[in-house]
Predict the 3D structure of the following.
Amino acid sequence: MLTFSCVDNTYDTTKINTEAEILQNGMDLPIGTLEMTMDSIFKDMDKTVLKVKNGVYTFCVGGSMDLASVNSALSGFTPASIPNPAATVVNMIDGSSLPSVPSNVPVGTNNYSGSTSVTLPNFRTTLMNPVDSILLANTTFTMRANTNNLGGTGLNNAITITCTPVGSAAEYYDVTTKAKITSWTMQVNTDKQIGIRILKPASSSNLQINCAAALNVGTLGSVTITAKAMTSLSVSVAFSTVDFQTVYGKVNYSKTDTKTDSFDAFGSMAANGNVLSFYNPTLKMYTNSNMGVPIKLNLTMSTKNTSTNTTATLSGTNFTMLPAANPASSKSNVFTIDQPTNNLANLFKINPDKITMGYTIQADPATSNHFINKNTFLTITDTLEIPLKFGNDFKVNMGDTIKNPFLDVLDQLATQENLAFGFLLNVTNRIPLSIKIKMTGLDVNNAEKFSIESANIRGGDQIDANGFAQDTAFTSTELSFTRTQINMFKDVPNFKVEFIVSASTGANGVAIRPSDWIKIDVAGRISGGVLIDLKKKPATN
Amino acid sequence: MIHPLKKMTIMKRIIVSVTSILTVALLFVATQRIQAQQVNSLYFLEKTPFHTKWNPAMAPSRPGIGVGISSISLNVHSDLAMSDLFYPSADGTQLYTVLHPSVDKNAFISGLNDVSNIGGGMSMDLLNLGLKFGGLYLTFNSSVNTDMGIGLPRDLFKFIMLGTNSSGSALDLSALNINAMMYAKAGVGLSVKLGKMLSVGASANYLMGLADMRLGFDQFSIASSGSALNITTKGDLRLTAPKAIGMEFNPDGTFKTINFDKNYLTNVQSDPMGNLPQSGKGMSFDVGLTFKPLNFLTLSAAVIDFGSITWDPASISQAKSNGTFTYTGADLNGGGTTSMTEQLTNFMNLQEYTDVQAYTTKLTTKINVGVEAGAFNNHITIGLLSQTGISDNGNYQDYMASLNLKPGSLLQTSLSYSLLHGEMSSFGAAVNLKLLLFNLFVAADYIPLKVTPQYIPINNSFFNFQTGFNLMF
């Protein structure tokens, strides 16, 4: 039926000029609103690392010093063994002139005496010198009295031996009742075990035990002389292995250790040009020990930026760990390292990539009357707390490279003649940090083709004494691309987007709390008209 | 600078003036209307199968039956023709779009109607049966009808072409509207010859509403203030459909989208009659008469599609907006961006509305008045047809003159000339062939006078096409 119609060749659709211009007078169009509280920003952070302390976000990382070798050395006291003395012989009845044997010992009582002694070692070691005393554990000696040339059915009950230690070199106890004893009795031909609780080598180097023996014959014939010779008692002493619980004296110990590691705790935030100015980070050292000796602790910590060759070192880090009051207790100490006293924050300001940490542990040589237990322990744990509270020179550039978000529309964009495009940002900020946004177009070699930058987005206002912003600040700014830059989009596969955060409010010690928030109203602004080519097809990938 | 032609040229103004004189009281500016329509070029070819659709009194001379492809009609209409959107260069070597940088966009926009309507419809007869009993002609018919349209306000073009920063005035999108309706129709009709001169006819049709959607605004304005848009909107979105098609709302009650259950549609395709959804029902009536006072002169008049569909509240979902709000964009906390469609949806600020009420959609009632005069024993006739459309959305008036050749029952043809809705004019044509029992007809209104080399109409933006195959005994 279209044969009725005339063909107008001026409307030949194959001749369509596909150049087009839209939004000729420009357009502002809201894109969206981004509203974030610090609480929402940090919601995925490990709450054991990022805590709220005194209302301020605080990074808390903890650790412990490896003191295995120190503990091994301090537990290394081994008391010397006590030598067994030679047996002591006490003569009793001379039977050499008897006409015949066995011969009955007459009824009645006869008394005899003798003593045994041993020279003690001084127990000194490299660790303990001198040793004043030792609180022993499970240390005993066994005494035994044997008769010579005596017999009879009543012999064992007829002789009673009373032992009495002499001097104050040791304290003894009954192994059964654990009670302290100052003398004890024993029968012949029977072992007698006695415990030694304390040895005091500083008081005396000799252990002496006097023995008094009473031969009491009640019935004639119950005790006999069995050989025509001198009868006697032979008293022997055998010491067990010396074990100890606490040794008293003077501890002599010193150890130094140093280790250097890479440091990347702040990741890309520690890039050169950034100033990680934390207002007052704190390193707390927690020590605990059952040693009865003051320990001098000297911590060394320094950081280094190997690219700028700058270093920073802690100062004033000599501490003394107080001793335990007694062997049954332990003593905890807390040492604080901070910026005002020790320049801790300076360690992070140089954007370090190396950290050297070390210590010197030394038993205080100026004191004595120390003690150490057999199970000595010394632990040092540390907690580094970095409140998100910043110095007024704080500046961090955080950025990432993203794929050019405009690539999808480039295939339909013609070469622009008047177009300018930008993002309008209306920002309400109560975070007490200023932000600047920068976008850099990167070519295939990641070289900069152009860059644009927003104005400084002001941080929250009215900083109080705690560093908190009490009021919001409003900033209206724009990220604008020029016509020339838009025409370069096709040569820019990637954009680097940077957020330059600084404490530019001028206040020192501004602090971030969970309720701080920022609201960004984003709008697109097009001016000058958009030239597009209707023939070009958008990329389909 | 290229200045686009005003839509209404001087020639067209003359035509409109003539039309105005003839119609006096029935001149209305065309507005959006939703109603599939028959091709008028077939009006005077009375041997067309089931011709009672144009006038219930115009019964064919033979009984017949048609199944499936008995009649298929298609119509499209737009207030924007190709000549409105494309401009040849002065030397004729290039064809500029209205978006070309050299085109005066302000002139184009000022030449637009307040609203530009674009729409279309399709009607397919599933069954037609005609039985002749002496002077009686009894018809049974069923069909499925679909109509849809969209009204684009002038400021929407302004928004795209000029942006939001022009002259600081708010964009007025109040005329934005979208309409779509689908319904099935089944009816019975009777035509009676009352003597040699007079025939009368009537038909009654049961209307089964399948789906209906309407979006419209009393007010919808957008003013830009940099990073925010101040939007005032008072609108209504109403969707009447089976449960498989429904609105989805955001948690805050704002309209999100319309969801379709594809499985349901698959079921409808596999078993249309068993799964046809009914969301509304109604009746329509057609009445007509023909009067032949002289052998060469026939007068006819008919009222077609007088009726309405009442939609079931249980099938209605609705969203309304009423108020002013500031739009600052999407919530970027979720990382989401929004498409332009989503943006526009956000601008409308439609809120879920649960107090739905039944409503009625009137069909576009058409009043056909025709005069046909013949010569050579009526083998050649001239016809004049006035068609007045009356609907809730507005009225329209068409006129058609036709030259009809009817050499015999084998062939009937018609060549028509129409004055379109008081705005444009164009030719139409119709052919009705009958070979033995087989009857084929093809017809079109508004055949464009000028087309591109690719046969795209240049000045016309209306087109009606109808064809069908039936058995006539």
Remarks:
- The first strand of chain A starts at residue 6 and ends at 7.
